[in-house]
Amino acid sequence: MASKEINRIIFSAGGTGGHIFPAVAVANEVKRRYPNVKILFVGAEGRMEMEKVPQSGYDIFGLPIAGLQRKLTLSNFVLPFKIIKSLFKARRVISQFEPEVVVGFGGYASAPTLRTAGRLGIPTVLQEQNSYAGVTNKLLAKTAKKICVAYAHMESFFPADKIVFTGNPIRKEFVQLPYSREEALNGLQLQPNKKTILIIGGSLGARAVNEAVEASLAQWLQNGYQVIWQCGKLYKAAISERLGNKEGVLLVDFIQDMARVYAAADVIVSRAGAMSVSELSLIGKPTVFMPSPNVAEDHQTKNAMALVSEGAAVLVKDVEGKEKLGVAVRELVNDTNASDAMRTKLKQFARPRATEDIVDIIENLIHGN
Predict the structure, then answer these.
(1) Tens-place pLDDT, residues 272-303
(2) How far is CA 20 from the centre of its chain?
(3) 244: which residues sit within 8 A by CB, 6+ positions away?
(4) pTM, full prediction
(5) pLDDT digits (tens, 9 = 90+) for 295-328
(6) Which helix H or strand E contains 158, and what residues bound it?
(7) Domains of the chain
(8) Does residue 275 contact residue 260 with C-beta atoms inside 8 Å?
(9) Nearest to 27 by CA among 40, 14, 45, 44
(10) Which residues pair with 287 in a beta bridge?
């Protein structure tokens, strides 16, 4: 434990798991080092952080902030009033809690929280998960003391003297998987002598990924592969009805134990959200990214290309998934030399100490180092 204490910290994150879970990982490390620290999260009312953060054991305060809708809606007209109310509430909660530092991870609630903290003279730290910086973090960069990033060449978004290349905070079980491949496959009741393809479509699923898998599945099974297919809650019933009880396919809507399926997989097919890319860099298994094109600034493609351009992964576009995904997976399974080279290059992007490094930055800021 450090010679000085950390007493109070506010974390602000929300909207998606990609913002929330890194914040929780950093909070957990702060709590590990300073068991008596008081931690408060600030989120947006009605968003998933209001459920996920308490489940992780932390208190959270909700702001009435919301995002600007791209189409003309009534909610856009009331947004200025929500912003003013959120700034007022953020000032009140920060003044009452008296944090030594406020750390933002993106999402609507970070804007009023960190902006207010800066005005009150409280140091702020940003963590940017993506290779293309989010709007909120770009707005807050001017007053932030340090900006922790997961990709190189972020100087186009942030002041160079504030940037620290840390990587994204990842759950501990992904740094060292708790299962061997054989243990994982046995637990999933799959065959250890078959090559295993893992499909990760996100909790809600991804239509283009599912359609590409369905187009490729017969050939994969004919080649002797088995498939763990996380298809999403929205699609499971329809896909299950079409598949029937097909041998060699484990179809699930959601995966609770990601460490187990990562350990079981030989090749992984995934979207390219920032946290998925960081996790898969640590896992170090041959990966095919199918980035979602339906995200701001097409940032998933940019996330994936940071690895693909260095030969650390393969990219298949949504629109080409039905024709190209099956071939891309088969090539990775069959070409062991290419797969081994990809594993080595993928590991070069891993940042297993990202969480610890970010907490070191917070410590140094508070202690004046």
Answers:
(1) 999 999 999 999 999 999 999 988 778 899 99
(2) 8
(3) none
(4) 0.86
(5) 877 889 999 999 999 999 999 999 999 999 999 9
(6) none
(7) 8-170+352-367 (3.40.50.2000), 173-347 (3.40.50.2000)
(8) no
(9) 40
(10) 268
